[in-house]
Amino acid sequence: MYTYNTFKNSNVYKSVGEALAEGQDASTVPAVQGVSTTAKLLPNVSFLTKAAAPHHPFHLVDPSPWPAFTSLCMLWLLVGLVLYFHKYSAGGTVLAMLLLGLIYATSVWWRDVYRESIDGCHTSKVKDGLYLGMVLFIVSEAVFFLGLLWAFLNLALMPTVQIGMAWPPVGIVPVDWTRLPTLNSVLLLASYFTANLAKHAVDRGKMSDCRNMLILTILLGVLFSYEQYREYIGLPFTFSDSVYGSTFYLLTGFHGAHVIIGFLYLSVCIATYKMAGPGRSTALDLSILYWHFVDLVWVLIFALVYVWNGSMPTPDVLSCKDSACVLQTVLRQLRLDLYSHNPEFFEASM
Questions:
Q1: CATH architecture of 61-122
Q2: pLDDT digits (tens, 9 = 90+) for 80-118
Q3: N or C: fewer beta carbons within 10 Å in the chain?
Q4: What is the rounded CA–CA span in Å between residue 300 and residue 252?
Q5: Residues 293, 259: Cα–Cα separation, whole Å
Q6: Which residues neighbour 290 within 8 Å (Cβ) at sequence distance 6 or greater?
Q7: Which biological process terms from the Gene Ontology are attached to this UniProt entry (predicted)?
Q8: 164 CB contacts (<8 Å, ≥6 apart)?
Q9: CATH superfamily of 124-163+174-312
């Protein structure tokens, strides 16, 4: 009996399978790669029943070890991060090995998916499933960032006694949003348009323009990551400086990680752009959709964590009405003076 795997590596599957799924006669399917009809490829196609022929447009994947191996690598990568952050012996070596293992697992997994697309396994139904999968993944990531933003706003609007009932907490100097954060916003805004230009170029069949726009988008993403690194090394507070430091670094750090994943995804699209074309650019479409999600998250982070948080009024001694306010204001001013005269002290504590 003919099974799906019989036609798995053949473009005949796409034509015959979709025709039968739509209730058409397989003998009426147009020519495939120089063959007049699929009846020539399958002489007895008229005798094949829907149970014996590829009768659905879905992709039944072969057993693969890479999803399980990738999951294990991600699990142990977290263990490696804990070892490295707590300065265990050989923690850095373990982390590097696990990171290389994760890169290898995702690379070969991606390679297999790419080969399946070349073999004609990605029908229109399969592409719809890929789009739905990316949308669901983005929704899950959006809920994750929503939780972090909610925690930040809850702490800022209702500061607890543990942090002196003040936001930012006493001694914390907010980031000046008019400097590097604004530059990073401009970089991501520019990358939004270059990514769209790459999509429009591939829809028009101008693959060289698509490649150039993708390269420019990747460069803007790399520059964003570099500027964020510069911002981190110059901040006057660390991850352990109360809940302010932890929420700030979690929000901006996880977003920075998503930016890195995004331009790596775009790099894969550049490596395979010659195989794309109008109507054959699923990977590029999904990568650009993911990149737009990263842009949108940054808009929220910039507006709330940088602009709104950095614009909150700072107490002044003359405006204080009790001794607690005076103490908080004096301590904040002392920390500012210390940072302005000896910034190496804060860099050494990071």
A1: Orthogonal Bundle (1.10)
A2: 888 888 888 888 888 889 889 888 888 888 788 777 777
A3: N
A4: 11
A5: 10
A6: 134, 138, 262, 265
A7: mitochondrial electron transport, cytochrome c to oxygen
A8: 170, 324, 328
A9: Cytochrome c oxidase, subunit III, four-helix bundle (1.20.120.80)
